[in-house]
Amino acid sequence: MSIFSNLNRNQKETIGLLQVGTFLEYFDLMLYVHMAVLLNEMFFPKTDPHTAALVSAFSFCSAFIFRPFGALLFGWIGDNIGRKATVIITTMLMAVSCIIMANLPTYAQIGIAAAWFLTFCRIIQGMSSMGEIIGAQIYMTEIVKPPARYPVVALTEVFADFGGFAALAVASLCTIYEFNWRVAFWVGACIAVVGSVARTRLRESPEFLKEKEKKQRKDYNPVTIEKKTMLAYFFIQSGWPVCFYFSYVYCGDLLTKLFQYSSDQIIHNNLIVSLVQLVGTIFFVALSVKFHPLKILRVSFLMFMAFVVVCPYLMFNLKTPYHLFFVQCFPLFFGLGVSPANAVFFKYFPTLKRFTSISLIYSTSRAVMYVITSFGLVYAVELYDFWGILVIMLPLCIGYCWSVYHFVGLERQSGDYSKEYGSEQMLQNAA
Predict the structure, then answer these.
(1) Which has the least CB within 10 A, 53, 100, 412, 419?
(2) Which of 216-220, 340-344, 355-359 has the lowest mean pLDDT?
(3) Which CATH class is domain 9-205+224-417?
């Protein structure tokens, strides 16, 4: 019997709407990220290489450093009004930001104002994307029981990666075939509007409604969150930003410096890299059908740790772009991610505090790590050459390892860590 066979029609429709919405949201968000090598030249003043690297880091981080404010806003909406309202609002905000960017004059036309308007749109995109993916994952965590819950929730990562891949494909077409880049943002705006309208068909999470009803009773006793669990989740979420920035942005810059790649060549290269990332995400989500997600993260971490140890050696011996391509792909395939264990982490946060606490930790960790990584790599590599990569990577690996084993301990206490996913008993419990 398949672990998905007990899903009813409403659950399947909800999962479909949320997955499609996640794809649309991340298509819009990542469209600028992957076209930054082209658009930064249009919207920011020309400077020396060092300053240009800092400007590039600033434009990249602008979508993430204000995410904690979005977490507080959308977290409050999600925990007080509902999950449905949150995912609809965030998709509409993404559509509005894409419309503005599609019509924004360049630096040559209006000067520094172009850079400020662009940065504002990136902030809105970052805030809305944070509420989108967390909202979708929490929604599915609350409507689907284990063991189907784990691959279903992790599937959002597949569609987020697919959105990034599609954004890269569009960026590649715009650069190689000289399509108007503004058309890409118009397409992103249109599909975001369609996604918002489609999500109005969603029903509110039953678990959220039930807990909200309990809150009205006089004997209601709210559950508190362990600080150790919050810290562990912070470190878990801190891993992926470093892998993402290192592979796409830092290695992308090296393609220009070492092998004289043009903007369109970098985008095309990253398109292939993103395909590897997508395949890796699908692979690990498929494994979660049979294996506990934390067991998968443990094995993936060991593979990544081996890569970190030899990474400086690999970087010092780059001979061709193909060598760098391998270095780009490995952290994205075996990176320090959260998928497919998202739903495992969510269940240790109380329902009526879940959206705010999870989204705040998620957004804060990404804001902190993207800033540390984007600016830290610039200076660490200048000071220590490629050994500087270890300055960023090694402390991160230690925190990530401790966090995974913290949640392994919680799962063992609950008795879920050793369960067999394919057992008939688990399937009956999920029904």
Answers:
(1) 412
(2) 216-220
(3) mainly alpha
Q: Is 203 left (phi over 0), alpha (psi -120 to 50) or beta?
A: beta
Dihedral sign (CA 408, 393, 159, 303): negative
> CB–CB of 212/81 below 8 Å?
no
Structure tokens at 130: 């944070």
DSSP 200: G
DSSP string, 114-177: HHHHHHHHHHHHHHHHHHHHHHHHHHHHHH--TTTHHHHHHHHHHHHHHHHHHHHHHHHHHHHS
The Cα–Cα gap between 155 and 340 comes to: 8
Give, in order, the Cα–Cα distances in Å from 381 to each of 373, 389, 392.
Answer: 11, 7, 10
70: which 2 tokens?
A: 């979005």
- Residue 187 burial class via C-beta count within 10 angstroms: exposed 0-12, middle 13-18, buried 19 and up: middle
H or E segment to which residue 50 belongs: helix 49-61
Per-residue pLDDT tens over the stretch 290-339: 899 999 999 999 999 999 999 999 999 999 999 999 999 999 999 898 98
Burial of 423 (0-12, 13-18, 19+ CB in 10 A): exposed
Q: From CA 173, how far away is CA 168, in angstroms rounded?
A: 9
DSSP H or E stretch at residue 5:
none
Q: In sequence order, what are the residues at sequence separation of 6 or more whose Cβ sits closer than 8 angstroms to the Cβ of residue 295?
A: none
CA distance 385 to 383: 6
**Average pLDDT, whole number, for the chain?**
83
Domain residue limits, the chain = 9-205+224-417
Neighbour count for residue 388 (Cβ, 10 Å):
19
Q: Does the pLDDT at position 430 exceed 60?
A: no
Contact of 62 with 119, CB cutoff 8 Å: yes
